[in-house]
Amino acid sequence: MSDKYKEAGKKVKLIVSDIDGTLLTSDRKLTKENIEAIRKAKEQNIKFTLSTGRVASMIDYYIKTLEIDTPVITLNGAVVWDPVKKQTVSDIPMDLDELNGLLEFCKYHEMDYAAMTMGTNYFSKNSVRINRYQRYNEFAKSQGMSIMEVDTFDDEHRCIEGVKVYKILVTEKDPKRIKILEDYLPTLKKTGFTASEPGLLDIAEKTVNKGMGVKKLAEAFNLRPDEVCTLGDYDNDIAMLQYAGFSVAMGNALDNVKKHAFYVTATNDESGLAEVVEKYILR
User: Fold this and answer.
1) Radius of gyration for the chain, computed over Cα atoms and rounded to the nearest angstrom
2) pLDDT score recorded for residue 175
3) Are 251 and 270 within 8 A, CB to CB?
4) Selection from 264, 209, 207, 193 nearest residue 233 by Cα
5) Residues 176-184: contacts with CB under 8 Å, at least 24 apart
């Protein structure tokens, strides 16, 4: 049974990994096993990069620690970012009219919401989610890395005038309140959404997804889907698992995510990324 995995693994020239719940442990650490497996892959001229719902400024530590020089897919595919040239390779911002209506909707329903950009990221005044980003900034500062700029919205959302917004992030643990938003979103013609963890909705331009981001990257390197390995654990990873020839779901992945995977590896706390790379991809 493992023969088909070895055959598929031999073709891989690009590995694209989700971060949270995949590359990192449950307490958001990089394991030495994962770091070593990625290093070995790069030594064999297999490219490695990240595909995440995070903004580019919130992955600087991982880019530098893993010495990533391949463009990274951020904001679920809305922005492909070149960490070497420090510039955007491709981007798809949200539709302005639908964005403004969505912000007013979130404000009216007193939701915990944020607008993610390539500069300052704005949060509602009642946001609990902002604490996670502030903790990341403290960690980044302690490592001598760049931080993610955060601020709160003004009452009229004027702070985002003239700014490209790539994602609205809504944090809500109450299923009834999430349903209010999920009922509203399909009325928007140019806006779509996915979930990146429980109680978290990622809202972006309708065509945006991680699969599209991986496709753009693969095409830039003249790679076929069967030369790409993707790894993920949650709903927003499904599109990139569907694209890649060697798609990997983590042992801790949702069951519906595992259905879209060619291979299911160990959990994120067991260095599942290293397991599949070492077993099937390294030459």
Assistant:
1) 18
2) 84
3) yes
4) 264
5) 177/109, 177/111, 180/109, 181/105, 181/106, 181/109, 181/111, 184/105
Q: Class for domain 2-91+209-281, per CATH? A: alpha beta
Strands 47-50 and 14-17: parallel
The residue assigned the tokens 């030459």 is: 283
**What would the two tokens of residue 91 be?**
């981007």
* Dihedral over alpha carbons 178, 180, 184, 190 (to 10 degrees): -10
Q: Is the distance from CB of 52 to CB of 80 less than 8 angstroms?
A: no
Please report, for residues 79, 165, 168, 262, the alpha-carbon distance to residue 155 in angstroms, rounded to integers and kept in the order given: 27, 17, 17, 47
DSSP per position, 57-81:
GGSHHHHHHTT--SPEEEGGGTEEE
Residues of the chain with pLDDT under 50: 1
Close Cβ partners of 69 (under 8 Å, ≥ 6 residues apart): 83, 84
**Which has the closest alpha carbon to 212: 94, 92, 118?**
92
96-205 CATH pick, 3.30.420.40, 3.30.1240.10, 3.20.20.140, 1.10.260.40: 3.30.1240.10
* pLDDT of the residue at 87: 93
pLDDT digits (tens, 9 = 90+) for 183-239: 999 999 999 999 888 889 999 999 999 999 999 999 999 999 999 999 999 999 999
**Residue 2: what pLDDT?**
59
Q: Is the dihedral of CA 247, 251, 257, 263 positive or negative?
A: positive
Alpha carbons 110 and 224: distance in angstroms, whole number: 45
- pLDDT (0 to 100) of residue 82: 97
Question: Of all helices (H) and strands (E), which one includes residue 97?
Answer: helix 96-108
A 10 A CB-CB count for 234 gives 24
| CB contact at 8 A, 257 and 235 | yes
